[in-house]
Design brief:
Among the domains are: 2-72, TATA-Binding Protein; 105-222, Orthogonal Bundle (Endonuclease III, domain 1). It contains 14 helices and five strands. It has helices spanning 11-15, 57-67, 74-79, 86-95, 105-114, 120-134, 151-156, 158-164, 171-183, 188-191, 196-203, 211-222, 232-241, 255-269; strands at 2-4, 24-25, 31-35, 38-44, 50-53. Helix 4 (86-95) crosses helix 14 (255-269), helix 5 runs antiparallel to helix 9 (171-183) and helix 11 packs across helix 12 (211-222). It starts with a strand and ends in a 6-residue tail after the last helix.
Length: 275
């Protein structure tokens, strides 16, 4: 089906934004997105803002419109940045087209536990291996791809995962999280109805989950865009352009979106945000 997207929407930038680890561009120029038990192939047509999405209209509206946060005006958010915040305005121009994805909570939790002190390419490799080892195969005409495993499937395949997935010291954290979700001490569905501070607090009861990982899960799985997780790249920006202060709280519910612009800009396009 054809879908028209008039707001910011750049598939390449979304893929390289560091928030999702199993998005991929295929040889036919389509991009593959996967969340839960849903799979999407989407490509931009020759007409600007017009995309070919390989899914039903019902699935597009029910699954992918929320997934891509298409109910929010990102261009208006970029335009609202004050002129005196030059670093943020530059980053927003560079990152225009990124959207904060609403991803599967369990996959997001495990992915960001794995992400600690790893490069994006290494995270992608480990997450892909996890899915390949014990995730159910997806019905795709284009590739051999698996859905992310359930907590129970992870727990049943610990030996194979330890041998193949290059998780190092993160192994006990991954399996503690799987046990917490499988055993019900962490109800990922219930978290969606809780206030931001409760979401963060409950996530941080999981071994290996600190403020940064909890913030990433809150932002990328639950759409809590007031969270702006601080990693080494964001901290460097704070030190270089904001005298060590955190600029994001001033942006309220848009903080996490602006954090994504900053992260993308320093990773991919503009190391010097004031040049």
């Amino acid at each position: 089906m054809l879908v028209k997207i008039s707001d910011d929407f750049d598939l390449a930038k979304i893929t390289d934004s560091g928030q999702c680890f199993r998005v991929k561009q295929l040889p036919d120029k389509s991009y593959r997105f996967i969340t839960g038990r849903s799979l999407l192939y989407i490509r931009e047509t020759a007409e600007q803002g017009l995309f070919e999405a390989e899914c039903s209209k019902e699935d597009w509206n029910k699954i992918w419109v929320p997934y891509f946060d298409l109910g929010r005006d990102y261009a208006a958010i970029r335009a609202s940045i004050p002129e005196n915040d030059r670093a943020m305005r530059t980053a927003a121009r560079c990152g225009a087209g990124i959207r904060v994805l609403r991803q599967d909570p369990f996959e997001t939790l495990i992915s960001f536990i794995i992400s600690q002190r790893k490069t994006i390419s290494s995270i992608r490799t480990s997450v892909g291996l996890l899915a390949g080892i014990c995730g159910e195969p997806a019905d795709s005409p284009k590739e051999d791809i698996h859905f992310f495993p359930t907590p129970e499937a992870l727990l049943a395949n610990r030996e194979r995962i330890e041998e193949a997935c290059r998780l190092g010291y993160r192994v006990p954290y991954v399996f503690d999280a799987a046990r917490a979700v499988s055993g019900g001490s962490i109800d990922l569905e219930e978290l969606s109805s809780l206030p931001d501070d409760a979401v963060e607090a409950l996530l941080m009861t999981i071994r290996g989950v600190g403020p940064k990982v909890a913030g990433c899960v809150a932002l990328f799985a639950y759409g809590r865009t007031s969270f702006a997780p601080i990693d080494i790249w964001i901290r460097k920006v704070m030190e270089t352009y904001y005298n060590g202060d955190n600029p994001f709280p001033a942006y309220g519910r848009n903080a996490g979106i602006l954090q994504q612009y900053i992260y993308y800009a320093v990773q991919h396009e503009r190391r010097d945000l004031l040049a």
